[in-house]
Write a structure and sequence with these properties.
Elements lengths: L8 E4 L7 E4 L1 H4 L2 H14 L7 E5 L2 H12 L4 E6 L7 E8 L2 E8 L8 E9 L3 H12 L3 E11 L4 H4 L5 E7 L3
Parallel strand pairs: 3-4, 3-7, 7-8, 8-9
Antiparallel strand pairs: 1-2, 4-6, 5-6
Length: 174
């Protein structure tokens, strides 16, 4: 049986020289890889007590929805600005190459709800910090974060040291 890491295609020097790009789509396009990814991520947080699963656009949707479904929990979307039809709350944050804004529906998290964040990757932790800010602004409590891939060399875990962070695969470099 293949290990989860065997499904990830690593592409050297993309998007620039010295970077190794970890391609998540190679996991998704293999039925066994997808099943192993979802099962592994779900197992990492099996002991966690949470009310709702939150995932960001777009691969957080892919991994978060089956985890929510398997555990009979609702799933809440976090999207780029301007993509949600009802009243939203938003937060802007810095990226290495500019700024980004993410939003969620204002009524998607109820005060006191315990939230599990699911995403494909954590690098510097900036997007995850922004998601936490949104969730907490609505009165939610982030009780855990689970990702498929952690790029430990970019130190995202350090920004999130007050939260439980689980990763299915951890790569030491960038």
């Amino acid at each position: 049986m293949k290990k989860l890491e065997d499904y990830v295609v690593s592409i050297p020097d993309f998007p620039e020289k010295g970077i190794i790009f970890r391609d998540v789509t190679s996991v998704l396009q293999d039925a066994e890889g997808l099943k192993l990814a979802v099962d592994t991520m779900q197992d990492k947080v099996r002991d966690l007590d949470y009310d709702v699963v939150v995932g960001p656009e777009s691969r957080g949707f892919i991994f978060g929805t089956p985890i929510a479904y398997n555990n009979n929990k609702p799933f809440v979307l976090i999207r780029k600005a301007g993509k949600l039809p009802r009243e939203t709350v938003s937060v802007s944050y810095d990226l290495e190459y500019g700024k980004a804004t993410i939003e969620m529906h204002k009524d998607s998290i109820k005060p006191g709800q315990k939230v599990l964040i699911v995403d494909d990757l954590i690098a510097t932790g900036g997007t995850t910090e922004a998601m936490i800010h949104l969730i907490e602004s609505l009165g939610g409590q982030v009780v855990g974060i689970v990702v498929l891939i952690e790029l430990a060399g970019l130190k995202g875990r350090e920004k999130l040291k007050n939260y439980r962070l689980e990763s299915a695969i951890c790569y030491p470099g960038k």
